[in-house]
Write a structure and sequence with these properties.
This protein is α/β, with parallel strands linked by helices. The protein has one domain (about 15-125). It is built from 5 helices and 4 strands. The chain has helices at about 25-40, 45-50, 55-65, 75-85, 110-125; strands at about 15-20, 45, 65-70, 90-95. The protein has a 4-stranded parallel sheet, with helices on both faces. The protein is globular.
């Protein structure tokens, strides 16, 4: 398991929650979460398990040192699910705030996911 944020602080496990909406921006958010996990930023975690209040999953989520929420659009569904569970996102990134369109004429999934991961890295450095 990945712990901390990779910048030298020891805050426990970092969990990554993503939107997986039908729009391009939601799919880019999800792909960015997978990339962030592969790069060792944290562990991808199921936002649906939080919404469903699965007891053993909620124990892990509550113990997390950092929570990263990656939303696809201004609906902020991922962040809101965490908040309804009484939790906060330490880092919150919204794909459309980075200029990623919900339905682009020429989608660039890889490039858009990279933009999101770069933003997460910048915010993680600021959060430590």
């Amino acid at each position: 398991m990945t712990t901390g944020c990779g910048c030298g602080c020891d805050g426990g496990e970092t969990l990554i929650f993503t939107c997986a909406g039908a729009a391009h921006s939601g799919q880019a958010a999800n792909r960015a979460g997978v990339q962030a996990m592969q790069q060792g930023i944290g562990n991808l975690f199921c936002i649906a398990a939080v919404a469903a209040d699965i007891a053993d999953k909620m124990t892990r989520v509550r113990k997390a040192g950092k929570r990263i929420a990656i939303d696809g659009c201004s609906d902020h569904c991922c962040r809101k699910v965490l908040e309804k569970a009484g939790l906060t996102a330490d880092v919150h990134v919204v794909a459309t705030d980075l200029g990623i369109e919900k339905k682009p004429a020429q989608p660039d999934m890889a490039g858009d996911a990279n933009k999101i991961v770069d933003k997460i890295k910048a915010l993680m450095g600021a959060a430590c």
